[in-house]
């Protein structure tokens, strides 16, 4: 095992590979403008003494570029590594704050519809007890694995619903975040004509609603069976409370979306205000077999040495087939306690649930910065993405809450909200400050809070 990477320098701009695939990063001025309601570069304070006329305008342009570059220390650009989503789709369309505001179809909160619900993992009833076998991971043959039955890797319990509610209550500060009040259950489903392709189970509520869920054999064999996420989302839509702004459903089973998928970790139907997230592939027991470089998950994902190594290893002429993970260099030894591993599992899941709920707020995938709303090709890229919202996506959420939900007035209300939200997130991260993502996020939040306060003082 090689020594740990010292992470001596950071990559603040997209990698050299971005140019190879044709990714054109937005300019500093475009990034600043994208975070404004007007769609124009904001008027920035300049020194009282200085040039006039055209010279002043030029000085303002230089000032705007400097402000945008200063932001990179808190909000680096997207990495665009060889297996990243933006490497496969470098021309993905941007969604500015102005474009988001002008979208007449987006989900708007009302007095009667302002609650975010989080539904717990459905219970497996005795009549479908065989579904418990579907939860057992079988890492890929030949891969370095940790044996979940051995004393070196303790059995983990699914993270508590209350922890999701606490984190999401801070992340979407201003919304009311509650557990879904009904208990969901997997039950048997009678099918007259048996399918050779699918098994069927039902997803039922306490009120008696029941939706058929297809299950298929997992193509990669990591789990024996997978549930169809479109069916699960249909069940969720049927029970969406009247006062729900949106709802997230957690499932422990592996999911797939269509026949082309190996698996899918989560999906949102923004228009329908629902999303589903599977806990399965995020389980730490699978880290080694999924070839995850644990040394370079966020906040270490912008390590320049790591980025350069990934680019150097890429063959830009190879056939473009999506990868489910990056090259593995080291793996964390399985010496952590069960509680540490469970919190690590939670840290991965809350980021994904926050992302999927972001789509119900009508946030599109982000290409402006490294951002929680970036799209990913698989687990390796997923764990490299930050848990924070970039300035453009944060402008949308702050407007949604401070202006549309709370009735505040414009930029002043949004700016005050941002500071409140950062404080709420820093406090909730303190619950789990011994675990990488939460510790890194709390440090990042405290730094941003100090920067904002310093800007206000000056």
TrEMBL record:
InterPro entries: MetalloPept_cat_dom_sf (IPR024079), Pept_M54_archaemetzincn (IPR012962)
Keyword Electron transport in annotation: no
Cofactor(s) listed: Zn(2+)
One Pfam family per UniProt: Peptidase_M54
Assigned keywords, A-Z: Hydrolase, Metal-binding, Metalloprotease, Protease, Zinc
Domain of life where this protein originates: Eukaryota
Annotated segments matching region Disordered: 36-58
Composition bias, Low complexity: 41-50
Protein name per the record: Archaemetzincin-2
């Amino acid at each position: 095992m090689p020594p740990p990477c010292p992470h001596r320098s950071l990559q603040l701009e997209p990698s050299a590979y971005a140019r190879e695939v044709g990714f054109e990063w937005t300019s500093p001025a475009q990034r600043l403008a994208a975070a404004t309601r007007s769609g124009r570069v904001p008027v920035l304070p300049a020194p009282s003494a200085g040039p006039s006329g055209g010279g002043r305008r030029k000085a303002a342009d230089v000032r705007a570029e400097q402000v945008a570059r200063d932001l990179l220390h808190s909000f680096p650009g997207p990495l665009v590594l060889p297996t990243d989503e933006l490497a496969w789709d470098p021309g993905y369309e941007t969604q500015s704050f102005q474009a988001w505001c002008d979208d007449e179809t987006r989900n708007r909160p009302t007095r009667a519809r302002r609650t975010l619900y989080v539904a717990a993992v459905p219970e497996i009833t005795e009549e479908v007890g065989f579904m418990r076998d579907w939860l057992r991971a079988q890492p890929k043959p030949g891969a370095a694995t940790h044996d979940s039955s051995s004393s070196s890797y303790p059995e983990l319990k699914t993270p508590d619903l209350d922890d999701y509610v606490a984190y999401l209550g801070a992340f979407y500060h201003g919304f009311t975040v509650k557990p879904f009040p009904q208990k969901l259950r997997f039950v048997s489903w009678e099918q007259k004509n048996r399918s050779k392709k699918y098994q069927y189970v039902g997803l039922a509520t306490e009120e008696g609603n029941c939706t058929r869920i297809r299950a298929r054999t997992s193509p990669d064999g990591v789990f024996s069976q997978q549930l169809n996420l479109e069916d699960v989302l249909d069940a969720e839509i049927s029970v969406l409370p009247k006062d729900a702004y949106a709802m997230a459903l957690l499932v422990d089973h592996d999911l797939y979306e269509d026949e082309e998928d190996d698996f899918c970790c989560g999906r949102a139907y923004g228009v329908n205000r629902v999303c589903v997230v599977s806990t399965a592939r995020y389980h730490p027991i699978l880290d080694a077999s999924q070839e995850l470089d644990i040394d370079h998950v966020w906040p270490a994902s912008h390590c320049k040495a790591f980025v350069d190594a990934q680019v150097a290893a890429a063959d830009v002429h190879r056939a473009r087939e999506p990868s489910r993970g990056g090259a593995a260099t080291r793996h964390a030894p399985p010496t952590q306690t069960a509680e540490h591993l469970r919190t690590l599992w939670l840290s991965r899941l809350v980021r994904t649930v926050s992302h999927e709920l972001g789509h119900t707020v009508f946030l599109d995938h982000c290409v402006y910065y490294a951002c929680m709303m970036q799209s990913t090709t698989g687990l390796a890229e997923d764990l490299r993405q930050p848990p924070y919202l970039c300035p453009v996506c944060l402008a949308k959420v702050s407007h949604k809450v401070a202006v549309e939900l709370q009735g505040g007035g414009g930029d002043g209300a949004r700016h005050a909200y941002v500071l409140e939200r950062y404080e709420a997130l820093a406090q909730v991260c303190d619950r789990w400050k011994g675990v990488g993502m939460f510790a890194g996020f709390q440090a990042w939040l405290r730094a941003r809070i100090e920067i904002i306060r310093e800007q206000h003082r000056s």
